[in-house]
Amino acid sequence: MLEPIKKTRLYEDIADQLISLIQDGTLAPGDKLPSERQLAEDLQVSRTAVREALHSLASMGYIESRVGEGTYVKQLTLDSIMHPLSSMLIKDEKLIRELIDVRTLLETETAKLAAQSITPDKADKLYEALTIMEESVARGGSGLTGDNAFHNTIADITGNDALRMILNMCGTLLAKSRAATLQLPGQPKKSLADHRTIYEAICSGNSEKAATAMMVHLQKAYRNLDFASIK
Fold first, then answer.
1. Would the pTM count as exceeding 0.85?
2. Residues 213, 132 within the same domain
3. The dihedral formed by the CA atoms of 207, 210, 216 and 219, expressed in degrees to the nearest 10
4. Which of 39, 61, 68, 146 has its CA 20 to 30 A from that of 181?
5. Tens of pLDDT along 154-167?
6. Within a 10 A sphere around the Cβ of 38, how many other Cβ atoms?
7. Alpha carbon 74 to chain centroid distance?
8. Total domain count for the chain?
């Protein structure tokens, strides 16, 4: 179980011990953590160090505080892990651009694979996602929810679970930068037009045309970073 802390950066060592207990299942999702006082006594450290460690774990998505109840281990999900990273990534434009490069490579091939395996049922699902985006933009919204659904559906069409997971990670990490670019004047309508082109290319079964349409769309997104306020 918990061991006395001997190193100098106390809160990091406390956090590391608790993370290990969560990862090996000793502390399971839904388990209540001991109080700050109890943790401080068990670890032989100050309550301030414990408090800093718990704050760090909460920011990483491992635990959550419930008012009047205490602190509990959270169920780890992709979003709970990626969301804190997204907040940090938004401060580093170089990393954002590099991640967009990765996304462009992957999504270009994903669009190609989707075109090769498109069926009427799959086309209907892609159209549903496009419709969500169209309705949002028509109401003056950004269309981001439909945008996400559209790209996720393209990944689903390929039937490649690993590819879908990686693209979801990229999408989550780029969420704030994507939202920022869609705030540019006229951008939601321009983005919607791109998505219609991608939809038509995939549904036509023309893999090269689908790949080109996706690449053009993502290259525009890359350029829009120069105009969007993402800091």
1. no
2. yes
3. -80
4. 61
5. 999 999 988 888 88
6. 12
7. 17
8. 2
Same-domain status, 47 and 93: no
Please check whether residue 117 is in contact with residue 158, taking contact to mean a CB–CB distance below 8 angstroms.
yes
Specify the CATH number for the domain of residue 41.
1.10.10.10
Cα–Cα distance, 65 to 134 (Å, whole number): 38
Check residue 46 and report its DSSP letter: -
pLDDT(79) > 60: no
Residue 62 is given by DSSP the state S
Count of beta carbons in the 10 Å neighbourhood of residue 121: 9
Inter-residue contact 209 to 111 (CB < 8 Å): no
Neighbours of 175 (CB within 10 A): 19
- Distance in angstroms (rounded) separating the CA atoms of residues 215 and 225: 16
- My answer on whether 67 and 151 are in the same domain is no
Instruction: Give 94-140 pLDDT, tens digit per residue.
Output: 777 888 888 899 999 999 999 999 999 999 999 999 999 999 999 99
Q: Is the dihedral of CA 175, 180, 183, 187 positive or negative?
A: negative
C-beta of residue 73 within 8 angstroms of C-beta of residue 30: yes
Do residues 110 and 158 lie in contact, with contact meaning Cβ atoms separated by under 8 Å? yes
| Helix (H/G/I), strand (E/B), else coil: 58 | helix
Per-residue tokens: 207 = 């893999």
Over 60: is that where the pLDDT of 142 sits? yes
